[in-house]
Design brief:
single chain; alpha/beta; six-stranded mixed β-sheet; two-stranded antiparallel ribbon; 12 helices; 32% helix
């Protein structure tokens, strides 16, 4: 049993596994030299009674292309097989840690009734809390994190207003321990082009809903950030393989054969077309009929 970590590397990743550092990592005995995000992830893992955690920068040899390709192809099984994924959602780099200062919106409780008789209690909270905490978080703007979040059976996200617990059955937070209201999870401002995220996990055992879920996922994923545009296909490959097995369909560079005619009707976002002179990724990533061949939201 093990945990995984989703995190932002930042502009420079100081601590990572290199081919000439195997001995140093094997003899590693102190946490003090590690980035704060890693230290916090270890603390959470151990506090919940687990001994092992998988972190990409520490478990993949970063200067070995063959090892990177081999590990990338197994990414779906790594995150799907974890007991829980820890997400440092608001840490732009490893120095911030998971436990950043909170700024939770107040939860106001009102007593409603007629006369002096109180019929029931009503709690009022900001409708955009979930959106602000998770959808707008720096971590969830990264393309690589999309499949990490969707594949994880359970996710513990540390945000700027507290912790969130997400699984197939429930999305809860410190503010709403019995479940975040659906209205809050479906909230999005009019300026947001992506889909409402709602529950982040997809039930891979339900092929009927997978096709619609994939379309919503493409809307969101295509607008996420990639350091290397050449990673656009591989960063989604693990999740695509899981969906392929569930739907028993043929995967065609971001599209599905059984629904190919409809899925070929994709278009780039109007505002992006208006601002950008060139949307095509200069190096070959996918055929031009695929939305993966362009840089920007569709």
């Amino acid at each position: 049993p093990y945990f995984t970590l989703s995190h932002c590397w930042g502009t420079s990743q100081r601590t990572c596994l290199m081919s000439n550092a195997f001995r140093a990592f094997a003899d590693f005995t102190s946490f003090s030299g590690l980035p704060k995000t890693y230290q916090h992830a270890f603390l959470v893992t151990f506090s919940l009674g687990y001994r092992f955690i998988w972190i990409d920068s520490l478990c993949i040899v970063q200067d070995d292309e063959e090892d990177w390709k081999a590990q990338a192809s197994m990414m779906s099984s790594v995150y799907k097989g974890a007991c829980c994924n820890i997400a440092a959602t608001w840490a732009p780099n490893g120095d911030w840690g998971c436990f950043i200062p909170t700024r939770a919106s107040p939860l106001i409780t009102l007593d409603l009734g007629l006369g002096q008789a109180i019929a029931y209690k009503v709690s009022l909270a900001a409708s955009n809390q979930y959106y602000d905490d998770l959808v707008e978080a720096p971590l969830n703007q990264r393309a690589w994190v999309v499949q990490e979040r969707y594949l994880a059976r359970k996710q513990l996200s540390f945000t700027r207003s507290g912790a969130y617990w997400e699984c197939h059955e429930l999305v809860a937070s410190e503010q709403f321990p019995t479940g975040v209201p659906k209205e809050s999870r479906d909230f999005r401002p009019y300026s947001h082009a992506g889909p409402p995220t709602g529950k982040p996990t997809v039930n891979l055992d339900d092929p009927i809903t997978l096709q619609a879920a994939w379309v919503a996922l493409v809307d969101f994923y295509s607008g996420c950030q990639l350091t290397k545009l050449s990673d656009k296909t591989v960063a989604l490959a693990g999740l695509a393989e899981e969906v392929r097995r569930a739907m028993e369909d043929e995967y065609l560079a971001g599209l599905w054969k059984k629904d190919l005619v409809k899925q070929l009707c994709w278009a780039t976002d109007f505002d992006v077309r208006r601002r950008a002179k060139r949307l095509r990724i200069p190096t070959f990533v996918a055929p031009t009929w695929s939305w993966m061949s362009v840089d920007g939201p569709v």
